[in-house]
Amino acid sequence: QVQLQESGPGLVKPSETLSLTCTVSGGSVSSSIYFWSWLRQPPGKGLEWIGYVYDSGSTNYNPSLKSRVSISVDTSKNQFSLKLSSVTAADAAVFYCATALRSASHYMDVWGKGTTVTVSS
Amino acid sequence: DIQMTQSPSSLSASVGDRVTITCRASQSISNYLNWYQQKPGEAPQVLIYAASSLQSGVPSRFSGSGSATDFTLTISSLQPEDFATYYCQETYSISWTFGQGTKVEIK
User: Fold this and answer.
1) How far is the C-alpha of B47 from the C-alpha of A59, rounded, in Å?
2) Hey, how many other C-beta atoms are within 10 angstroms of the C-beta on B9?
3) Which chain B residues touch A104 with a CB distance below 8 Å?
């Protein structure tokens, strides 16, 4: 069973780049059965899909974030990563990594526990 | 972009009640509709995928129905552990969208 664990700084300054990593265990980030995904949830609000990486480098991003987002994979470390540039207070959220099955209806069957990111100087 | 509208945004119910949550898409999404449950401080968990398929390990009191633009999540007999927030999600478009959530509270 795949397990996911997010890691990265919990505090980012405004205008800087947020960088998070998701470490995959129990499976391979090279697997072709998943879209390796990032989502976020601002405090007290709903879920927002950020994007995903697949096939060791192909990506798809939420159009509302596309100009600021980059998701990549490191097969040597069995990790995938999120970078979000030019952050503001509105980017503060709990960030989740998740696997989305490429078959069926792309539902997200495995989630990390989430990591909280605060944006403040 | 496809908009997903859930109703109600919140509801109060008692243990044993039948609960229905609806999700409407702004355009047809076939059956590319998933339902998640999220408890406070926890990551979401999938309940239903492809509109009506029950995820392995999820109790059979949860069911989903619908197609095209109108979908329903039903809890046949609400249990104490079901008090949570529920989200629908479309994965038909290239940009996946969630509904705003429905919070199920104890009456």
Assistant:
1) 26
2) 12
3) 49-50, 53
DSSP label of A46: -
* Among the partner residues B1, B46, B97, nearest to A107 by beta-carbon distance: B46
Rounded Cα gap, residues A74 and A57, in angstroms? 9
- Name the token pair of A20: 């998070």
Assess B26–A contact: CB distance below 8 Å, yes or no.
no
Cβ <8 Å between A47 and B89: yes
Ordered per-residue pLDDT tens for chain A, 121 residues: 999 999 999 999 999 999 999 999 999 999 999 999 999 999 999 999 999 999 889 999 999 999 999 999 999 999 999 999 999 999 999 999 999 999 879 999 999 999 999 999 9
Nearest chain A Cα distance for residue B34, angstroms: 6
| Residue B24: closest CA among B99, B103, B96, B101 | B99
pLDDT, tens digit, 9 for 90 and up, residues A55-70: 889 999 999 999 999 9
Tokens of A9: 């700084």
CB atoms within 10 A of CB B95: 17
Residue tagged 């509109």 (tokens): B51
